[in-house]
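Lab manual, section 2.4: Encoding a predicted structure.

Procedure: take the sequence of the chain (251 residues), apply the prediction step described in section 2.3, and record the output as structure tokens. A sample record is shown.
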Amino acid sequence: MKNSVSFDSELTKFGIGIFETMKVINGKVIFLEEHLSRMYNSIEKLNFNTSIEKSELKDKINCFVETVNYKALRVSVYDEGYNIQLRNIDYTNADYKEGFKLNISPIKRGKSILYNHKTTNYFENIYSKRYALSKKFDEALLVSLDDEVLEGSMTNVFFIKENKIYTPTVDESVLPGIIRSKVIHICKKMNIELIESVIKLDEIKNFEFCFITNSLIDLMKVISINNINYQKENDIFRKINCKLKEIYYGY
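Recorded output:
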């Protein structure tokens, strides 16, 4: 494992690298295979050179987390090697009880294949998140130049209306999130209608409920986006959340 990066690295000079953030529970990485598949898909699609094979990296990760109880794990690959780090997961029971408040990011996105991949050049997302926090929000919602809803700075977004779930289509501006894919799978399994479509910013006021997902949060309800308020409870959301825990966490 290489913990240091030289000034000649493409990571240092250009922010070129690929990373994944995963949850570790009782020495096991949740959805490790899915995360590594996404990482190595990005390596292939972006013509990224790395000397470590997927199977070798998987073994090193599993060895690294053997004694880890509950942490966030970040794995990065770059031209000089790879890095594995741990940090705390800071979401609390109070967060899940109260729900998150989102604001619209001041940054609007165009089209780029890079948005489909978790690259280490993440400043746009970090700026949007910090801007939201500075305004007393919890997360930022990114929209396109055409005011199409895309995703959160760290999350994917879902809306509910009349027992149907809506989420933005994964195109060249949205990351195909791991938990996003699990929600879609659960909806199919439970015969809940889920619609992937273009959602315009001026349409978000028409939805009853909203929630966001990522690999550390799992599912988090959203109580407001800017000055638009949503219901604080929803039966469809509760069922999906319970099914996620049942299928993938065993409780």
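Check your result against the sample. DSSP finds seven helices and 13 strands in the chain.
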